[in-house]
Amino acid sequence: MPDRPFGILVLNSISRSGLDRLPPGSFVVGKDIAEPDAILVRSADLHAMSIPSSVLAIARAGAGTNNIPVKDLSARGVPVFNAPGGNANAVKELVLAGMLMAARNLAPAQRFVAGLQGAGGPLEKAIEDGKKAFAGAELANQTLGVIGLGKVGCLVADAAIKLGMQVLGYDPEITVDAAWSLPSQVKRAASVNEVLKNATFVSLHVPLVPATRHLVNADNLRLLKPESVLLNFSREGVVDDGAALQALDAQQLAWYVCDFPHPGILAHAKVLAFPHLGASTREAEDNCAAMVADQLREFLEHGTIRNAVNFPQVEMGRESRWRVAIANANVPNMVGQISTALARAGLNIHNMVNKSRGDMAYTLVDVDSAVNAQLLAEIRAIAGVLSVRYLPA
Ligand SMILES: NC(=O)c1ccc[n+]([C@@H]2O[C@H](COP(=O)([O-])OP(=O)(O)OC[C@H]3O[C@@H](n4cnc5c(N)ncnc54)[C@H](O)[C@@H]3O)[C@@H](O)[C@H]2O)c1
Ligand SMILES: O=C(O)CC[C@@H](O)C(=O)O
Q1: Which homologous superfamily does the CATH classification assign to the domain defined by 89-101+137-273?
Q2: In this structure, which ligand is nearest to the CA of 170?
Q3: Of all helices (H) and strands (E), which one includes residue 286?
Q4: 1-87+279-311 CATH pick, 2.40.30.10, 3.20.20.220, 3.40.50.720, 3.30.930.10
Q5: Which atom of ligand 1 is least distant from the CA of 279?
Q6: Are the beta carbons of 138 and 168 closer than 8 angstroms?
Q7: Could you tell me the distance, in angstroms and rounded to a whole number, from the CA of residue 65 to the centre of ligand 2?
Q8: Which residues contact 196 (CB under 8 A, 6 or more apart)?
Q9: Does domain 313-393 correspond to CATH entry 3.30.70.260?
Q10: Nearest alpha carbon to residue 365 among 310, 299, 318
């Protein structure tokens, strides 16, 4: 353990039930930590800030990591943790709310009723005369297209099936676990276009990456039926919002439900915009904060990597007091060079694990005696080694 507590810089409001998992003796947690060992964040834009060289890990208390410069951090050997599934139920419930709000015209209906305040005349008559304008449609038997069948998309698909909807799903990289968790009634689409052509409700649940920017755009919005509802709980940028507004104006689209408001869409009568509210429930905030706090603590204290978006899962039970954690490029002979350096220093390897994912690899080595600063410097100097940490228990 280090001779001082780990410093954790907190950049957004993070649930206490997560922060309380970082005990005061071992961690100093706050908004003003000068040289933090780690950063805990929700939606704050880390692209806009210079991340101090002291930072060993970033933990995102949520799913999306597009607000974090993951590539740059990978090059520094810094893992970026997130909380897969921690807020999925919260998002699912808001998607259902969005579908119902659109299908039943609830926002204009509510505005109509609020407008009756002080209008004079018999309220009952005004209500009965006015309600015709807000008659809607039921969800049952309609088709929902789900684009992105990860943690959120699978729950949305499942809930829609339970509501009696038909579900058409598209995800070219669906995981085996996600495929197993989907109800058998979900039909598989071969493309975004197939979903747009056949669904009346289309809900997006993909990360924002270069390949998903403007996934829904002027070209493919034309495929929608005029009564369609598009729901974007993914990210601003996944839909070309200008094209969505044009589709609304041209009556090629009935509603655009969006969790990422910006000046261009705020005032449109057919936009239902929420203030990035998908994950804002007590339960989701607690889940995500607890998950990332545990992952951060395990990493800082033992080098364990669980749920990093840029590193493999690496866990090794601790059987010796002396552990070295090495992040390195996934190139040949890294393990050979690390073991040779340890052997040259007369250290016996007690246990070792090395895993890779894409360009990144990570090695945990437990040795039978203490490691000195010179050996750590030698390992650090091996070409391809990105970071080295000594973690004596
Ligand atoms: N509104 C909110 O508050 C809120 C909350 C949680 C997540 N999100 C957003 O939703 C996204 C999804 O969350 P999740 O927890 O389900 O993530 P996830 O990683 O579990 O699922 C994402 C899925 O998208 C799929 N995918 C990637 N590219 C695709 C493409 N081109 N076409 C179709 N599918 C594609 C992946 O294969 C994966 O299965 C997050 O990245 C985040 O941006 C928003
Ligand atoms: O932290 C939040 O409120 C939003 C999180 C959400 O966008 C996510 O990607 O998990």
Answers
A1: NAD(P)-binding Rossmann-like Domain (3.40.50.720)
A2: 1
A3: helix 282-302
A4: 3.40.50.720
A5: 3
A6: no
A7: 9
A8: 145, 202, 216, 220, 221, 223, 224
A9: yes
A10: 318
Alpha-carbon gap, residue 380 to 325, rounded angstroms = 11
What is the CA(152)–ligand 1 centre distance, in A? 7
pLDDT digits (tens, 9 = 90+) for 23-79: 999 999 999 999 999 999 999 999 999 999 999 999 999 999 999 999 999 999 999
- How close is the Cα of 73 to the center of ligand 1, in Å? 21
Question: Is the ipTM here above 0.95?
Answer: yes
Q: Which amino acid is present at 207?
A: P
**Residue carrying structure tokens 């080295």:** 388
Question: What residues have CB less than 8 Å from 201, skipping those under 6 apart?
Answer: 99, 102, 103, 139, 142, 143, 144, 145, 165, 228, 229, 231
Question: What ligand 1 atom has the least distance to the C-alpha of 94?
Answer: 1
Q: Is 63 in the pocket of ligand 1 (CB under 6 A)?
A: yes
Q: Closest Cα partner for 26 from 296, 285, 288?
A: 296
